[in-house]
Design a protein that fits this description.
Elements: H1 2-22, E1 42-48, H2 55-70, E2 75-80, H3 88-97, E3 102-106, H4 129-137, H5 139-146, E4 153-168, E5 183-186, H6 190-198, E6 202-205, H7 211-217, E7 222-225, H8 227-232, E8 241-257, H9 258-262, H10 266-300, E9 304-307, H11 310-317, H12 319-324, H13 330-336
Parallel strand pairs: 1-2, 1-3, 5-6, 5-7, 8-9
Antiparallel strand pairs: 3-8, 4-7, 4-8
The structure holds pantoate.
């Protein structure tokens, strides 16, 4: 009896192995393989400069879940965090060239592609994120996003990076005088550079991928980024002081290569648009939640976190408005500015 059972087991194993390896291809038949291009999965790569547990990559994972659900698994969204596909500017160029499908990026590099995005770089312009969401999701926001179209980039929506705060290793920074002479890494963005010049710091623009090492090695004294970035990139391991300057609200954007988007069937395009909207809401809520929690978390890592009188900082940054007045659409400024 035992022998019969063993033979049956061996036979069933042989049968299932041949079924797996042979798949649906019948080598003895001249029929074409059962799979056709329309059965092949559409692979969409999404790049982020930030870590896998960052706001962008978590939001992208929400997007992935939704798109895969809405397309019954026809689409395979693959997320590449930590700048694996390049820094933000490189990835945006990749969309334009059609060598990458999607990216979640801060708006920091976008003035290099469209000057309309410069408005977001003005210090202390946006003080109320809810009001900013309204404008960004409304007519003005859509007008700004549409300026990327001639570059072959479809901007799906504004996400959040957050209110940027200065950190450094030299001393507690309370007033603008305290930042004078400090080497602060900024994004490669002219208005951010001008702002830190106004503050008499030494702005040191560099790609995000180089920042952690530069902080550790002391080639720069500090940097400025939202709390979610400070935390997910473990900057508390390389920075002693964090000042809650909130000097600029930094939106993010989810972008897709227009050529990739146009190549997808209508139902996949619809799924992408729907999923982005839902992931955007999720990501914004996540950022708000983290902003509320992270001061305590960051303090628990031994970082000195300092509240500042923002009005002093705002005053010190004011000349930047005159400097860029001719370059920035004042309707955008008026719509976005806080009270
Ligand atoms: O500082 C930057 O370059 C950006 O804020 C970052 C961290 C890449 C997120 O967009």
């Amino acid at each position: 009896m035992k022998k019969v059972v063993s033979i049956l087991l061996v036979l069933s194993l042989v049968f299932s192995l041949s079924a797996c390896s042979g798949g649906d291809k019948d080598s003895s038949s001249s029929e074409p393989a059962a799979s056709s291009p329309s059965d092949e999965k559409i692979v969409i790569r999404v790049g982020t400069a930030t870590e896998l547990d960052s706001h962008y990559a978590l939001g992208a994972q929400e997007f992935e879940k939704k798109v895969e659900e809405y397309t019954d698994g026809k689409v395979d969204v693959q997320i590449f965090p930590s700048g694996q596909l390049g820094n933000e500017r490189d990835m945006i160029e990749g969309l334009s060239l059609g060598t990458l499908e999607m990216v979640v990026s801060s708006t920091g590099p976008l003035p290099n592609f469209s000057k309309d995005f410069q408005v977001f770089d003005l210090p202390f312009l946006i003080t109320d994120r809810e009001k900013a969401y309204e404008v960004m999701d409304g007519e003005i926001g859509q007008q700004i996003l549409a300026t990327l179209e001639p570059l072959g980039i479809k901007a799906l929506g504004f996400w959040e990076n957050g209110f940027r705060n200065v950190s450094n290793n030299k001393q507690e920074i309370v007033t603008p005088d305290d930042i004078a002479g400090k080497k602060i890494r900024t994004m490669e963005n002219p208005i951010h550079i001008s702002t830190f010049q106004q503050l008499k710091a030494i702005p040191t623009p560099m790609a995000w991928s180089e920042v952690f090492t530069a902080l550790q090695q002391g080639t720069i004294d500090g940097q400025e980024n939202p709390l979610v970035v400070f935390n997910s990139n473990k900057l508390y391991e390389a920075q002693k002081y964090l000042s809650l300057t909130g000097h600029v609200y930094s939106p993010a954007v989810m972008l897709i290569s227009q050529s990739a988007f146009d190549s997808y069937p209508k139902e996949v395009q619809d799924a992408i648009v729907k999923a982005e909207k839902e992931a955007r809401t999720w990501e914004r809520e996540y950022c708000i939640k983290m902003d509320n929690e992270l001061v305590d978390t960051i303090k628990s890592y031994g970082v000195t976190v300092t509240e500042v009188d923002k009005s002093l900082w705002q005053e010190a940054c004011q000349p930047v408005y005159d400097q860029y007045a001719d370059e920035i659409n004042q309707d955008y400024v008026n719509a976005l500015k806080g009270n």
